[in-house]
Amino acid sequence: MHTNDYKAIKAAVITVSDTRTEETDKGGRTVISHLEESKIEIAHYSIVKDDYEAIQAVVQPLLKQVDVIITTGGTGVAQRDVTIEAVRPLVDKEMEGFGEIFRYLSYTEDVGTRAILSRAFCGTYAKTVIFSIPGSVGAVNLAMKKLITQEVFHIVHELNK
Predict the structure, then answer these.
(1) What is residue 7's predicted lDDT score, i.e. its pLDDT?
(2) Which domains does the chain have, with CATH numbers?
(3) Which residues in the chain come in under a pLDDT of 50?
(4) What order of strands is seen across the sheet that includes strand 10-16?
(5) How many beta carbons lie within 10 A of that of residue 69, not counting itself?
(6) Which segments constitute the MoaB/Mog domain (predicted)?
(7) Going by C-beta distance under 8 Å and a sequence separation of 6 or more, which residues neighbour residue 160?
């Protein structure tokens, strides 16, 4: 199937950061750019603090409103990085392969052994897929070009069977 064979997709983009503003959010803008290039509608964009409850408060209502949620930032190992902890309890099924392949690609194409620090994550809830990716522009480009835009239409199709 080609992208044109799938239904239109609505997406939410959430940047997790204590310091970024709409003007300085290069990672979030890069996600949006890739989605727009793939003809995916941006139904929501926001910046949320690195805070468990704040992240859940934004993500949870979107699970019934959009087909795909992409969070960027807060996926490292620092104490303040809680995106994965906030998102994981909201999913029904985890797609471990996303994080595994993301780290492999990061290792071979970009950051070498520092790839083990990435906790990129993907899971589904009902008919929505959630991707949580690092916030750097390099990581966003890698995840969007090599993984998310390549598979998101098929994933959403499968979730709607």
Answers:
(1) 83
(2) 3-159 (3.40.980.10)
(3) 1
(4) 41-48, 10-16, 68-72, 128-133, 121-125, 93-94
(5) 24
(6) 12-155
(7) 7, 127
